Amino acid sequence: MDYNYKKIWNIRSDSTVTPEAMDISHRLGISHILATLLINRGYNTEDGVRAFLGKSTEVLHDPFLMNDMEKGAARILKAVENKEKISVYGDYDVDGVSSVSILYLYLEKLGANVDYYIPNRKVEGYGVSEQAIYKLSEKGTKLIVTVDTGVTAYKEVEIAKKLGIDTVITDHHECPDVLPEAIAVINPKRKDTTYPFSSLAGVGVVFKVLCAMELLHSGDTMTSCVRRIADAYSDLTAIGTIADVMPVTDENRLIISYGLGRAECTDKIGLATLINLCRNNDTKSAKTKSKRKISSGFIGFTIAPRINAAGRIYDASIAVELFLSKNLKDAEKYALQLCDINKDRQIEENRIADEAFAKIEQDGYDHGGVIILDDPDWNHGVIGIVSSRVTERYSLPSILVSFEGNEDPYDENAIGKGSGRSVRGMNLVNALSACSDLLEKFGGHELAAGLSVKRKNLKELQRRMSEYARGCFNGVEPVSTLDIDCELAPKEVTKDLATEIMLLEPYGVSNLVPVFAMKEVVIDDIVPVGMNRHLKLILSKQGIRFTAMLFCTSTEDFAYNISEEVDIAFNLEINEFMNMRTVQFNVKDIRLCERSLNEQKNGEIDYEKIKNGEYTGNVNDVVPTREDFALVYNFLSREARDGVHEYSYIRLLNAIRGRKKDHTLKYAKLKNIIKIFRELNIVLIDEKDELSFEFRIVYTKTKTNLEKSNILKKLKTLYIGK
After folding, report:
1. Which end of the chain is least crowded, N or C, by CB within 10 Å?
2. Can you list the alpha helix ranges (DSSP code H) found in 304-402?
3. In the 3-class helix/strand/coil scheme, how is 657-688 assigned residue by residue?
């Protein structure tokens, strides 16, 4: 434990109410806290706030503004009319699965001869493959429509053409300068784009294709066509858009807002079944929980992981079949499978995470600016999630590489598949580009990327990536930052506020979930939940109690104790349980409160002065009494019996004070007591650093004479006579 926080908190507004926030609050009849949140998001005028909350400035653009839209839509409709075999070719993540599903459902409705194809992640990898083209040709496919993939499939499109197969590409990934020679390449990120919004998800592009097809097919008005498509498919479109972490601006904001509403009353048996299972903790129940509002958070953290899990460790077609289900029996079968697969994914993720952390901590891993780890057996469908956890814990870019599937994973030419995550300040794709001669292939975004690399190039990749990182951070180790909207006073935390801030929904990139802070909060209780995978904290301040959830942290990993004062950063949520609605904190970060941090700093200064005979304060704060020794020893003995064997001095001090309210033990004196215990072998002490230690109690039948301590003798010599 050191003086520095793991994350730098950037609190945009303190607890003082600004005149600007009060003015907007009075004009619109909203709380000053919601007004502050809106100002933080750039909406600081009455008109701007009304437009944002009413979503009156966003519009759905004409789909035919997108390059090749008319050609692509017309070719698909021609195939429908002529009963040509159409194969929808998609990716195995949520965006790909939802894209495949809505296009398949629409084509099926039109009476098309349609099937779908999603590559196996382990066997075929990402994107359109030659192997798949030949398979589809053998099955009689005459038109391939790619969704969420295909914009770099030059060779595969040519092979398809030679086999008599036309291709329509719909994608949203970054486009190369030269596009495949398909019938149409529909992508808002084309270099020559004529479309006003470039940040659609893959499923968002397909949604626009459906709107265009509906218009060409029905000859109805644009408004009527878009309304029908939105009513039928915006639920899955919203899910894919949220899961692919697209910015919640422009069209996406409307699609997500409308789609979340449609998801609450969806006519898709499979989606409704999955939602109900999630609400009932992945089990069938005769009693369905009350239908609370479906939020982007529920989609992102509950629904999407279950859909994603299929493609990560098994077969993404299970998720597609769920959404195509026509009866409850099939829907329940596939939904339960997804929930079971997700549990397997969680187990696998935790196993890999434990192994990754062990490699870093136990093997003396030198971070060197970028953490790169490899293993012969890691599931490469899961390592991206684990890479996120590594980067979160160490505030460093990380890449995990799996050599799973190689005949000899230790052969120098064995090819590993890697997944990486970065932090602000280092564009991961640019970093990989600088090392492209070492890689078989790579791609991705600023903060997340995938790659393939031969084992013989791993060491050099580590060196050059670390060198690149040092250049980005100017030799200074990166520190994660947490943007916090404002501080809250205890009396401001109400169900009304938690409900009111839902007006900011839908959340996502460019409109993040509000983060609040509360300082000097006392931990009243720590309760393990979910087999000790998560913690429920009971907190209090000024006589008001709060419940907080801290996910992915066990009691062993939690750095604080009951009665300690901490600062917390959190999202404010409504928890619904047994038909009861209560306010709950979702903890984003927790740290030693500033008062304790200052006491630790000043205590270290006093300790050095005492040791050097330079302390001029109260002698009672210097020389421990027998009662002081007994107090600390008895406390440590109780903690050891409860399985606690590690403390920092400030944590121990706060914990003792919490147990014995009237005691006036000071930091420097406590540190001397621990040093004396170590000197006399009363307690086995292993100092981790200047601020913390591990301990084991030594149980003996005879009492130890404290007066034999040289440290105690020196303290008495220096200070008792003063």
Report:
1. C
2. 304-313, 317-324, 328-362, 383-394
3. HHHCCCCCCCHHHHHHHHHHHHHCCCEEEEEC
Long-range contacts for 66-69 (Cβ within 8 Å, ≥24 apart)?
66/186, 66/188, 66/193, 66/194, 66/195, 66/205, 66/208, 67/185, 67/186, 67/187, 67/190, 67/192, 67/193, 67/194, 67/195, 68/184, 68/185, 68/186, 69/184, 69/186, 69/208, 69/209, 69/212
> Do residues 437 and 454 lie in contact, with contact meaning Cβ atoms separated by under 8 Å?
no
CATH architecture of the domain 63-250 equals Alpha-Beta Complex (3.90)
CATH 3.30.70 fits 595-719, yes or no: no
Residue 53's CB is within 10 A of a number of other CB atoms, namely 15
What dotted CATH number matches 7-51+482-592? 2.40.50.460
For the record, the structure tokens of 422 come out as 């970065």
In terms of C-beta density within 10 A (0-12 exposed, 13-18 middle, 19 or more buried), how is residue 282 classed?
middle
- Burial profile 245-277: b = 16 or more Cβ within 10 angstroms, e = fewer: bbebebbbbbbbbbbbebbeebebbbbbbbbbb
Give 41-63 pLDDT, tens digit per residue. 888 888 889 988 888 777 899 99
pLDDT exceeds cutoff 80 at 427 = yes
Amino acid at 425: G
* Greatest CA separation for the chain: 105
User: Which tokens sit at 6?
Assistant: 């793991």
609-640: per-residue pLDDT in tens? 999 989 988 888 899 999 999 999 999 999 89
The residue type of 131 is Q
d(CA 46, CA 217): 43
Supply the angle between the helices 32-40 and 46-54 in degrees, to the nearest 10: 90
Secondary structure of 614-662 in the HEC alphabet?
A: CCCCCHHHCCCCHHHHHHHHHHHHHHHHCCCCEEEHHHHHHHHHHHCCC
Q: How many angstroms separate the first and last alpha carbons of the chain? A: 34
Give the whole-angstrom CA distance, residue 76 versus residue 677: 80
3-state DSSP assignment of residue 121:
coil
Query: Does the pLDDT value for residue 669 go beyond 60?
Result: yes
- Kindly write down the DSSP assignment for every residue of 145-211, as one continuous string: EEES--TT-HHHHHHHHHTT-EEEEE--SPPPSS----SEEE-TT-TT---S-----HHHHHHHHHH
Within the chain, which residue ranges are assigned CATH 3.90.1640.30? Answer: 63-250
* CATH 3.10.310.30 residue window(s) in the chain: 366-478
Burial class (CB in 10 A: 0-12, 13-18, 19+), 153: buried
Residue extent(s) of CATH 2.40.50.460 domains in the chain: 7-51+482-592
CATH 3.50.50.60 fits 366-478, yes or no: no
3-state secondary structure 544-584: EEEEEEECCCCCCCCCCCCCCEEEEEEEEEEEEECCEEEEE
> Is 168 within 8 Å of 180 (Cβ atoms)?
no
Q: Which residues contact 281 (CB under 8 A, 6 or more apart)?
A: none
Q: Mean pLDDT in the chain?
A: 90
State how far the alpha carbon of 673 is from the alpha carbons of 359, 648, 666, in Å. Answer: 35, 13, 11
Query: How far from chain centre, in Å, is Cα 569?
Result: 16
Tokens of 262: 């449609």
- What residues contact residue 625 under an 8 Å CB cut-off, 6+ apart? none
Asked whether the beta carbons of 422 and 446 are under 8 A apart, the reply is: yes
In a 13 Å sphere around the CA of 134, the CA atoms on its Cβ side amount to 4
